[in-house]
Amino acid sequence: MNEKNILVTGGASGIGLAIVRKFAAAGSRVYLLDFNRENGQKVADELTNEGLKVDFKLTDVSDQEQVKEVIDSIEGNLDVLVNNAGVSHIGNLETTEEADLDRLFAVNVKGVYNCSRAVIGRMKSQGGGVIINMASVAATMGIPDRFAYSMSKGAVLNMTLTIARDYVKDNIRCNAISPARIHTPFVDDYLSKTYPGKEREVFDQLAATQPVGRMGSPEEVANMAYFLASDEAAFLTGADYLVDGGFCKLKM
Predict the structure, then answer these.
(1) Radius of gyration of the chain measured on its C-alpha atoms
(2) Burial 110-121 (b: 16+ CB within 10 A, else e)
(3) Are residues 114 and 207 in the same domain?
(4) What does the angle CA 86 – CA 118 – CA 178 come to, to the nearest 5 degrees?
(5) By its UniProt entry, which CDD domains does this protein fall under (predicted)?
(6) What's the pLDDT tens digit per position in 178-195?
(7) How far apart are CA 183 and CA 131, in angstroms?
(8) How many of the other CB atoms lie within 10 Å of CB of 37?
(9) Domain count, the chain
(10) Which residues pair with 241 in a beta bridge?
(11) Among residues 57, 90, 167, 179, which is most buried (max CB within 10 A)?
């Protein structure tokens, strides 16, 4: 991946940050697209000070015009797009308000559409490229209280399949990654707000739901993204790759 141009949405924290670090450490120039100006610039500055090539681009993936403007400003090939930006929601059909549904659709679904649409023409003209979409085990599993989130990630998975089919002759590969529970700052924040004083207990309970007995790390998801972007995965397109500790296939 040396000297490749990589675009990572939602790259300022969690899985996105691990992906940014992974590609940058391999010699890629990484464009970190995130709506959080403070965190995004801080991360980019820190990694640049480490000698890595990371550029921050303030981007709201739900805003098609802004996405197009940002991506058009990037010079050279667009080798890899990682559609990682996403938001979560806890609730069933009855407790999910219209505003909740609209918010998840705007970021998780429209965001993937906006970014993919903005790069596809350049990828075709340059002779190929790679798109990696962050789905979730919730896209194919019935997980309690994840009505809107599951809907949005199911859409991401199906966009992956149709993009792969439509552009396979253009040498553009498109795959999805479906993580299960990954230990990110989001998890810690959720536990501290929802279960104050019982964070460790609930964390251990959640970790135990994974057949391997622990949550995954952001770096383990980043490893899969790196592999799917590389030439070693040149024969892989139109598929969903589980990074789930056996959650989907081995869960009792």
Answers:
(1) 18
(2) bbbbbbbebbbe
(3) no
(4) 35
(5) SDR_c
(6) 999 999 988 888 888 889
(7) 24
(8) 11
(9) 2
(10) 177
(11) 179
